[in-house]
Amino acid sequence: MIGRSGPPLCDQIQVTPGYYRGAAANRDIPHGSAELRCIDEETLMLSRRTLMGAGAGGLVLLALNGRRPGVAATAAQTFELTHSEDEWRKLLTADQFAVLRRSGTERPFTSPLLHEKRKGTFACAGCALDLFSSDTKYDSKTGWPSFWAPIENAVGTTEDKSFGMIRTAVHCHRCGGHLGHVFKDGPRPTGLRYCMNGVAMTFKAAAA
To answer: What is the edge-to-edge ordering of all strands in the sheet holding 146-147?
Structure first.
């Protein structure tokens, strides 16, 4: 680290356990102005060449001031269920808020829903809208709960240009909460992989 006085360097800022820190080493972050972000391992692999040396201890650390493009695009839309930021913070856990309202990404292989094999429905943790049926869930080997199709009219998508690449972000159709991303490398019949954050969802088991 480069020694200096003044505002703390980014890696001195405390972040939620289980999340990647969203700040680059040796970059000054003023008090109260930094929004820490996390990135999934796919982003780390895709961005390796441009991000080499950005972090310490094997982690690539990025800084984003303000909202991610995907968040801004979703915020511009009107949804059936809305709350103020303060209301969302009261309704959600810190981890749920970081993902659903700030487009964060949980660490891979940390969600209990990754291993959920019962029949049932995966719903939005923000508004309880049913999003995915267990019939479309499969093991993508990525570390995040994955599905080859959502329930009809349950999700929407926006273009996400964060981290120097173009991806398709997925959000809840009712409340606009960020769920994850969809990729074109999934199984039949759709060929799609809805790579979702488990913390952004709840599971409702089917009646026996």
So the answer is: 137-138, 146-147, 193-196, 178-183, 167-172, 155-160
